[in-house]
Automatic annotation (TrEMBL):
Domain of life of the source: Eukaryota
Species this protein is from: Volvox reticuliferus
Name assigned to this protein: Uncharacterized protein
Biological classification of the source: Eukaryota, Viridiplantae, Chlorophyta, core chlorophytes, Chlorophyceae
Length: 156
């Protein structure tokens, strides 16, 4: 892992790095996720795959592709897990948008910056709906006028 190159792990004073968080869960590696291309080996165990840990999923997918490289497995070439189960990938972000609510969404800004939607998105409600279910995944320009209040969902 690039961040921890040349660290002497025998020295216990170095064990507090990364705020004493394991870098093996999603986003716990200083705000990003481990990548098989950054590290030589990553764990790919059943429980990590079941938890949808992205670096394990990525490593397992690379392994599958490499194993089938010479087989010319047409179904593998034509398949796409995202396309076949799109909602499961989008659901978390849709739920966050719905939890956030439309009250801080700048619908006017959204309509002005996405002029190709003018005929279809002609009210604040339709702008919010479009952003929630499509626009955020298309990386369309948008903005919120206030920050998300996470405290109403999580207690410390």
């Amino acid at each position: 892992m690039t961040k921890y190159q040349n660290i002497d792990w025998r020295n216990k004073s170095n064990w507090g790095c990364n705020a004493r968080s394991s870098p093996q869960s999603d986003l716990t590696y200083d705000g990003i996720t481990l990548d098989p291309l950054e590290v030589m080996f990553v764990k790919v165990k059943g429980f990590l795959l079941q938890r949808n840990i992205t670096y394990s999923l990525k490593a397992a997918q690379y392994d599958l592709w490499l194993e089938n490289e010479t087989s010319r497995n047409v179904s593998l070439l034509l398949s796409n897990k995202y396309a076949s189960n799109e909602f499961s990938y989008k659901a978390p972000r849709i739920l966050v948008a719905k939890a956030r609510g439309s009250s801080c969404f700048d619908a006017e800004f959204y309509r002005q910056r996405n002029r190709d939607l003018m005929d279809m998105v002609n009210s604040d409600t339709t702008a919010w709906q479009h952003y929630t279910f499509y626009g955020q995944f298309e990386r369309r320009p948008h903005r919120f006028l206030c920050s998300m209040n996470y405290s109403k969902y999580f207690k410390n």
